[in-house]
Every structure is written in structure tokens, then in C-alpha cells.
Amino acid sequence: MQTKFFNILLAFTVVLLMASCKKDEKKIDTSLLPGIWQITGTEQYLHFHDDGTGAFWDESEDVYEDDIEVDGNGWFNWAVAEETSNSKTVVKVALNFKIAVSGGSVPKNATITQLDASSMTWQDAFKNQTYFTRKKEPETQQSQTP
Predict the structure, then answer these.
(1) What span, in angstroms and rounded, lies between the C-alpha atoms of 36 and 38?
(2) b/e for 85-95, b at 16 or more Cβ within 10 A?
(3) Domain over 26-136 is classified CATH 1.10.8
(4) Contact, 105 vs 98, CB < 8 A?
(5) What is the pLDDT of residues 80-105, one digit of tens each?
(6) pLDDT tens column, 67-78
(7) Could you point out which of 13, 41, 47, 131 has its C-alpha 20 to 30 Å from the C-alpha of 30?
(8) Diameter over CA atoms, the chain
(9) Domain coordinates of the chain in residue numbers?
(10) pLDDT per residue over 126-135, tens digit each?
């Protein structure tokens, strides 16, 4: 009887220990972000420059990266920020896109959920996920000067 009780107690303790262990958070290497990314299934591209600027264009609309002017439509600023909540670190990319509507800018915030050398996934505030594929390796000089 004592052996059976001891085995049950031991099994219960092991289960509790395993349940209390936190899953290691995936560390996202944000140095992989600069470069040209294509939104999967579209002809839309984002070029993240090393200096925190970038360009968005849609080749299905006959708009190409060379058509994007600094601070014009399609130009954006971005930054990476780490937020900690409930002992969990989440890496966020804040994008500020320039849009054609009355010459203003509209902020777009997303959380990077996966990032490696060839693919990226982010989730917006509405829990929509967007998938990207890297199209070109980052170049040495990626920013345009005004």
C-alpha cells in the first residue's frame, strides 16, 4: 500500500513539475528584417532599409520600387520595439506608412511571430496574419537620400 501511494505521489509530483515549466520563448533575430519582402500570394513588396525607412509598392498596379520617392506615397518609417507583459517578451515592428489619402500617414502596428532568413510572419491588432517571403538579400546601401 505504501509503495502504491509513493508511486502515485511521485507521478503527481512529476506532472506538476512538467506543467509548471514555462515554454522557452522563441527569440526573434530582428537583424534579419532589413531587405525586400514579398507578401505571399501577391505582387506587393516591402523593402526595409537599415536606417529605419522603407518602401512599399504593388507591381500588380504597375508601381515599382524606383517609383517610390522619399517621404512620398509608399515611403514608410519603421522601428523595432520589445514589449514585456506578464513576463513575456514580444517583439513588435511599428510601421508608419505614407498613403495617398490627403497626404497624411497611417500607423500600422504588427507583432512579428516568425522571422528567419527566408520567411516572416506578422500578426496585426485584429489577429490577422500576413506571410512574407524574402525576395533579395539585404544590400550594403539600402536607403535613399532626399
Answers:
(1) 7
(2) eeeeeebebeb
(3) no
(4) yes
(5) 877 666 666 666 666 555 554 446 66
(6) 998 888 888 888
(7) 41
(8) 82
(9) 26-136
(10) 889 999 999 9
